[in-house]
Amino acid sequence: MTITENLDKILGQIPSSVRLIAVTKKKSVAAIKEAYDYGIRDFAESRIQEALLKQEQLQEYQDICWHFIGHVQTNKAKKVLENFHWIHSVDSLKLAEYLDKLASKTSISPHICLQVKLLTDPNKYGWDMIELWQDLSHLESLKHLKIKGLMTILPLGLSEDECLETFDKVKKLAKKITEKSSLQLEELSMGMSNDYLLAVEKGATMIRLGTIIFGERN
């Protein structure tokens, strides 16, 4: 199936209120242009060097909204801040404070999702529930970040019921934090190619899809 056919199918399955973010890691600029011509405006990358090369070739596409979804290394945080509208993968208080400090020296105030890890997974970054509650007052004090929601990546090998349960926990956590703090966590960035329909069922507002749009990565 073509990129257009894949997008037709996906958008027929989800509410119009859900933001489809096309993950273009290891995909060509031509593939991005094809998705853009279809009408997609949200694109995500997880490696800063690769992203900057693509952005340079797509400078005339001024209305693209770029999302960073990879682990943010401290030495690359400034470049991420300067070149992405959204950072979904803010996974620690240390990183959030550092981004806030960088943002205070610029006119940039990025949209942020806090990455949470509600199930044990040595391959993923993020706050567990206890850590996030402990850090909440510090996060509330950050003045230069627009903290908009939570992001999660599920461990591999979960059953459908386990996926649904975990997505539901993320949704309830965001709701509780919104009720108990000054943060308004209205965005839920959850769901990828293998589980996005389950995420949408549990309230995802943003889904991050790569393989199901563009095919397997080389």
CATH topology name, in short, is TIM Barrel
Q: Kindly name the structural category.
A: alpha/beta
Average per-residue pLDDT, rounded, comes to 96
Strands ordered across the widest β-sheet: 7-6-5-4-3-2-1-8
CATH architecture type: Alpha-Beta Barrel
DSSP helical segment count:
9
Q: Look at the structure and name the CATH superfamily.
A: Alanine racemase
Q: Name the shape in a single word.
A: globular
Terminus-to-terminus distance: 17 Å
Order of helices and strands: HEHEHEHEHEHEHEHEH
What is the number of independent domains? 1
Helix content: 40-55%
Top-tier CATH class: Alpha Beta
Work out the oligomeric state of the chains in this entry: single chain
Radius of gyration: 17 Å
Main pleated sheet: 8 strands, parallel
What is the tally of beta strands?
Answer: 8
Give the low-pLDDT segments: none
List keywords for this structure.
42% helix, 218 residues, TIM Barrel, 17% strand, globular, eight-stranded parallel sheet, single chain, alpha/beta
Strands, helices and their partners?
Layout lengths: L2 H9 L7 E5 L5 H10 L3 E4 L2 H10 L7 E4 L8 H7 L2 E5 L2 H12 L6 E6 L12 H12 L5 E7 L7 H21 L6 E3 L6 H6 L4 E4 L1 H4 L4
Task: Provide structural commentary.
- This protein has 218 residues and is α/β, with parallel strands linked by helices.
- The protein has a single domain, classed as Alpha-Beta Barrel (TIM Barrel), CATH 3.20.20.
- The protein is built from nine helices and eight strands.
- The chain has an eight-stranded parallel β-sheet.
- Helix 2 links the parallel strand 1 and strand 2.
- The mean pLDDT is 96.
